[in-house]
Amino acid sequence: MPLTISPANPTDLTRILEIQHLVFSGKAFGTVLFPDGYTPSGIATAKTLALSQMTTDASIRRLKVTDSEIDDEIVGAAQWNIYQETRPDDEWKKGVKIECEDENIREMSMKFMGAIEERRRKWIGGEAHCLLYILCTDPAHQRRGAGKMLVQWGCEEADKLGLPAYVEASAAGHRLYESCGFEDREKVVMGKDLIGEYGPFQYTFMQRPAKGL
């Protein structure tokens, strides 16, 4: 099989950010990822933030899937956050900070991520868990199994640790997560009153119960 999964390195970020742009452009999450736009300066800002998170947040596991038949090009990527200890309520209350020159974009991004965090806090609370924060496959390489490899990696880690796993599933990704053992917990709709032109946006909050080995 030409596809291989491995940890992502800082040198992979340019390609990973490109894939994120291809997948999320025109969507609310795409604006969160690139609040200053997918421009040289916007990409530099996103890369700086990602590098900072990789070096300061011990929960983060960044992964990539490469294809040996096309010079080991990265075709998919994911970020799992693994919290092996309980998360104090104060940590949830920190919220998400978005830095952006455009106040309207900053406000929308804050509302969007605030609503996501509120749902996570509701269902996860303070328990130890694994969270699939982001998953993306280059549209030119979708339906080849890269996405499933990235999801299964986190599921296996969760099982080793005896932890539940969570994900916010779009309609496009729902079947994949379901095939990996995730179950629906709540369907969420964000309207235009919350995220403006990007609404309505619907996703399903899903949980994969702790299994253990």
Structural account:
Strand 4, helix 6 and strand 5 form a beta-alpha-beta unit. The chain contains eight helices and seven strands, in the order E-H-H-H-E-E-H-H-E-H-E-H-E-H-E. It has a seven-stranded mixed β-sheet, sandwiched between helices. The protein is 41% helix and 25% strand. It has 213 residues and is of the alpha+beta class.
| Relative strand content | 25-35%
Question: Segments where pLDDT lies below 50 for 5+ residues?
Answer: none
Radius of gyration: 17 Å
Instruction: Please count the helical segments.
Output: 8
The total of beta strands comes to 7
For the record, give the distance between the C-alpha atoms at the N and C termini, rounded to a whole number.
27 Å
Could you give a short account of the major beta sheet? 7 strands, mixed
What is the molecular shape? globular
Structural class: alpha+beta
- The percent of residues in helical segments reads 40-55%
pLDDT averaged residue by residue? 92
Give me the strand/helix succession: EHHHEEHHEHEHEHE
Strands in their spatial order, largest beta sheet: 1-2-3-4-5-7-6
